[in-house]
Amino acid sequence: MPKKSDRRVALPAGLIPLLTQPELETYYGVSDFTVRQWIKDGMPVEPMRTSGTERVHRRFDLTSVKAWMAQRDERLVSAS
């Protein structure tokens, strides 16, 4: 039986997955506190409801987050 990591399948062209908060934390190598601070600072979040629950889960479009980070970095540099 193949390992789970061996069963990865490439995404169809143009399909960009939304990341969970732990995945975003891992991607940037930061803590959950840092991601929550970024959200407070205006980082784009995609709310996602799961069927049968009222709870809204946060998902992150990495392309949007990268654009927000670049814009944020420009503002921080120009403010210095």
UniProtKB/TrEMBL annotation:
SUPFAM superfamilies: Putative DNA-binding domain. It comes from the Bacteria. This is Helix-turn-helix domain-containing protein. It comes from Streptomyces broussonetiae.
